[in-house]
Amino acid sequence: MRLSKGENVFKTVNYIVLILIACSSLFPLLHLIALSISDSTAIETGKVSLWPAGFNMDTYSLLFNGTPIVKSFSNSVVLTVVGVAFCMIVTTFAAYPLSRPHFYARRFFTLAMIFTMIFSGGIIPTYLVIQSLGLVNSYWALWLPALVSTYNMLLLRTYFENIPSEIDEAARMDGCSETRLLLQIVLPVSMPVLATLSLFYGVAFWNIFLSMLIYINDTDKQNLTVLVQKMIQSQSVLQQSVTVQPDDQVHVVEEGIKAAGVIVLIAPMLIVYPFVQRYFVKGVMLGSVKG
């Protein structure tokens, strides 16, 4: 079908706008990469823009040898992997019964969970509860309050509701229990939305910042986000933890180290996203529209 002249103009303008938006998002990342691998002299003189000037990996050497970034990175990995596992298990077991039409009072429980999206307990009451449970300075203070995201639960529940009822009926005729139905039939056909929700939870736990500052006082347990923020805010982390020789520090500038820290922070999500991208749009669309 041939497009009219107006449609071609509209399509061209759309492409131009989208390309400009993509470039505006990509340029800061390219600038950070260039800063992190450029020579310190070029950085100080402002010669680095989108392309590195004088390839140099000293910033990464100082970052990994002179700061506790490896420990913070491992903390972020543990926090994210365990948190995503717990959240997906609890979210699944919350969404599945609410998606079954024969579940008693499912409307009441659904509305009760939606209520938490509108009204929350607040930071101070939540902190007092966490403190009374003895969870301060423990990752459980971060995992337990985030076990179920109501939005993600509703997304998964709607996806379960869209699964043809004939599949359930055929499984029950063969003597399939509810647990087996969920684990062997419902979950395998729900991989798109499960991958999407795992990505949602993963990004949330990887980037967790305020809750980490509130509940975790031990610096050995703090994650990569907090460490990078401290590096950007001041050089105290580098000055206290540096282990390289002073003569070697002269060739590394503050901006380069900060850029390298940000790259290490965002790199895991950039690496993981392409592997779940094919599930991402499909999972959101199928789980958000009922019918």
Short note summarizing the structure:
With 291 residues, this protein is mostly helical.
Throw out a few tags for this protein:
globular; MetI-like fold; 291 residues; mainly alpha; 2 domains; disordered C terminus
Structure report:
- This is ABC transporter permease.
- The chain crosses the membrane at residues 12-37, 77-96, 108-128, 140-160, 181-209, 256-276.
- 27% of the residues are buried.
- This protein has helices at residues 5-36, 40-44, 58-66, 69-99, 106-118, 123-132, 140-143, 150-162, 165-173, 178-186, 191-206, 210-215, 224-233, 236-241, 246-249, 254-288.
- It is mainly α and 291 residues long.
- The two termini are 30 Å apart.
- The protein folds into 2 domains: 1-56; 57-291, Orthogonal Bundle (MetI-like fold), CATH 1.10.3720.10.
Sketch the major β-sheet. none
Gap between N and C termini:
30 Å
The CATH superfamily of the largest domain is MetI-like
- CATH topology description of the largest domain: MetI-like fold
Approximate shape: globular
Topology:
Layout: H1 5-36, H2 40-44, H3 58-66, H4 69-99, H5 106-118, H6 123-132, H7 140-143, H8 150-162, H9 165-173, H10 178-186, H11 191-206, H12 210-215, H13 224-233, H14 236-241, H15 246-249, H16 254-288
Helix pairs in contact: 1-16, 3-16, 4-8, 4-11, 4-13, 8-11, 8-16, 11-16, 13-16
